[in-house]
Write a structure and sequence with these properties.
The complex is a heterodimer.
Chain A (H helix, E strand, L loop, with lengths): L17 H8 L9 H4 L6 H9 L2 H22 L5 H17 L1 H14 L3 E5 L2 H14 L4 E4 L3 H6 L1 H7 L3 E4 L2 H8 L16 H12 L8 H18 L2 E4 L3 E3 L4 E6 L3 H8 L2 E7 L3 E2 L2 H15 L7 E5 L7 E7 L3 H6 L14 H5 L1 H6 L10 H11 L16 H5 L6 H14 L4 H14 L2 H17 L2 H4 L6 H4 L10 H8 L2
Parallel strand pairs in A: 1-10, 2-3, 2-4, 4-7, 5-8, 7-10
Antiparallel strand pairs in A: 5-6, 6-9
Chain B lengths: L1 E4 L3 H6 L1 H13 L3 E3 L9 H5 L3 H15 L4 E4 L2 H10 L7 H8 L1 E3 H9 L7 E9 L2 H6 L15 H6 L3 E5 L15 H4 L1 H18 L3 E4 L2 H14 L4 E4 H5 L2
Parallel strand pairs in B: 1-2, 1-3, 3-4, 5-6, 5-7, 7-8
Classes of the chains: A alpha/beta, B alpha/beta.
Amino acid sequence: MFARTSNVCPNIKCLPEHQVFVRTSNVCPNVKCSPDQKNKKMTSHPKNAEAFIENTDRVDWHDAALWHVRQKRDMAVNTVPEWEKLRDVAAQIKAHTLANLRAYLLDFEQNAMANGVEVHWAKDAEAHNQIVLGILKRSNVKKVVKSKSMLTEECGLNAFLESQDFEITDTDLGERIIQMRQEPPSHIVLPAIHIKKEEVGDLFRKELGAELGNNDPTYLTNQARIHLREKFMECDAAITGVNFGVVETGEVVVCTNEGNADLGVHLAPIVIHSMGIEKLVPRSKDLAVFIRLLARSATGQPITIYTSHHKKPAKGAEKHIVLVDNGRSGRLKMEKHRSSLQCIRCGACMNTCPIYRRSGGHSYHFTIPGPIGSILAPTTDLKKYSDLPFASTLCGSCGDVCPVKIDIPNQLYLWRQEIAEAGALEGKRKSMKAASKLLASPRLYRNFGRLMTMGLRFMPKFLMVNRYNIWTKGRELPKPPKQSFKDWYKKNHK
Amino acid sequence: MRVGLFIPCYIDQFYPEVGIATYELLVKLGYNVTAPMSATCCGQPMANSGFEDEAKKVYHHFVDDFSEFDVIVMPSGSCTMHVKEHYTNIEQSKNVRHVRKNTYDLVEFLRKHGLKKLPKVTFKTTVALHTGCHSLRGLGIGQPSELFGAPTSALRQILSHVKGLKFVDLDRPDECCGFGGTFAVTQEAISVKMGQDKVADVKRTGAEILVSNDMSCLMHIEGILRKQGDNVKIMHIAQILNM
């Protein structure tokens, strides 16, 4: 949240339009910004959210757009009478797979190798990027196309490959838009949901020479299509994300709506599928459960337009699978928190979350935003992300929509306890101790209550409503009653 | 049946009329009701802030106050959920288990024991309903719109016994109002925005009164209504049933 006052990102590579972003999110969206610049000042969800909310029109539009997706989801869900049963089964399959992950990973590797696929193991983001670099260098690749992948986002692959002089093009439309803007995605399924079509029009005019002022979505999509066709035709390698890896067949399954992953895979002589180690399902028939859940939860579609099973390399082509840990096995060891590994990245918890809808994905300052991001982030850095489990009213809706039944609200509660235990909230401990003492003592409580209501009744308003009283910025205080319930009860209860 | 009535701290201090209505309603239904004078708080504010350890003292105090009753009733779904779900970090003695098992939100309790005995009330007005999230999703009184099947409202079920009430539907009946305990202060901007959106939804319906089973949501919503100078009123469900 540097530069809130000056609205200028210290990175000289920052584009002018980022200034707007710095204003609204406090986080420099430039992915090229070095980590120490990004961390110059600690960012926090409440501050980022406050900045996002300043623009009422934008926040209302953002909220309505995502609520619309939630409503589409509800309609799709209600066409499947066994929906709640499916969620149960999916949760069980995931829990079972995670409990036996080592064996399943080794089987998957065997079966994929038998299909003629080269399998690589990456213990962290850096290892992943080096493996990809090695594959690309070996074949003198210069130009790479990539389909949607939160994992490569997590690994910072784009910035890494660009620093090694590769051209890497995101081919999912939303991803391409944010890549041009040099921003991270603000949503895991709808990466550019924070951007209006007028802004896309301006961007495409600048980047692609599109017509001035033509913001028609069909026109803009066609402009992107023409541009991306060129990138596809020129590419030497294709990278995809992975939705599921099927152990019994050794195949990977990629779900997209644009067919961009397929185009890359079928055109490029070198194909790399990057997948997190938690993406496995044991059998094809298990996969069916998740395919029924994924698109309905994500966008309200019965199924994504393309559900592609990639098994063997094409004739004369290479196929690689990179299995990435990057903290996942550590998370698996956290008995209380391993359920977060069940996530299939549908984004339903974001669409339903009243806080996410009103604060935007960038306010979470973590690769995965929203409720699921808020319980994943502390597994990577408890202190840095200690604000995120508090970015919730614990309303519970995220847990209800989760297709794999991750106990997100409970996880948020548990993380709050751990964050306090770890000493990240020491500023608050004193007041909490005092509150506890007060509330465990009827006498202290009675006196305090009297003082409080007396204060409300007799104190001049400027003492109660001022900049130190956060409650009264947007709300009035309750009108002080003449007597408390207990006063009444004592008089009336015989 | 001996009923221990717990009036949460903010109701005791700011909304005594809600405590009184709850007490009188339970007496009308024929219960032997006692509200212990030493009762304070369920401990939720500390626990939700991450300080469950500091809340232990308050938990013990609550259990000491209420373990002698057959059931414990409170006009707050949020406190009920906290007692039932989160009193897990103290020793699960016989008293603790008894209290956790027999604590009810007023709406939950009425649905279980009191529906047929409800006093006859006529109240001619238009109401919109708000079920607190912890009651709806935590205690499962009613079904939220995101689960499979038609959403249901326990408040509506109970209030259908009141003559003259006209119900109007919110566009987003189970969207959180944004109170969230300390969230209301630590995330002030979003909390207020959520409350403003809830108020806008209520105003669109033309409701005269917003009724809830959770006074903490209403405290926050009323604060916004009054700040904006809106004339929609708020009422706890007990205040209508006890008219």
